[in-house]
């Protein structure tokens, strides 16, 4: 009897980490939509990057947040290992296919950003999807991207530039990828659009 109870209670935990068809479909839809947003932001960013950069060397990192949200948003909805990496990488691929000036580097950025967010959710054992992990995941994506950018785009940059760029990128990640993704998931959950996901059921339980 005890073995049966133990086995039964263990099943839900095991299922948490298994991707369902609906997880793959929704994660893909979210990632594709995010890829379109990436492309649009690429068009918007170009004319404003000059004035922003003129504020302070490295301050352009504040514009990086919109590149970082796909992984965090996908993970907050699907809540499965690999969701952050999948969401960010697919979004980057879509953006690259539409056409960006960064070419292959777009995919590299997607991989690094996704890993940055994924590591944070893994540290929480994929069991905590509240605001704090979301903010930290946004920060993780921002930190990972700033390291990549400093090595790939700004090799030999002065320490002051590197510090400002890293701090502003992380802040942008916390706000755009962390906070805004968390708020968006809550808003979607209230509409019933996420009823097949834990995020939606939690929202329904709070009403």
From TrEMBL:
Which Pfam families has this protein been placed in? ABC_cobalt
Q: Is Ion transport included in the keywords of this UniProt record?
A: no
Q: Where are the transmembrane segments?
A: 21-41, 61-78, 85-104, 110-127, 134-155, 161-185
**Keywords for the protein's UniProt record, in alphabetical order:** Membrane, Transmembrane, Transmembrane helix
Tagged with keyword Acyltransferase: no
The UniProt entry, under InterPro entries, shows: ABC_thiamin-permease_prd
Q: Which residues form the signal peptide?
A: none
Recorded protein name is ECF transporter S component
According to the entry, what is the taxonomic lineage of the organism?
Bacteria, Bacillati, Actinomycetota, Actinomycetes, Micrococcales
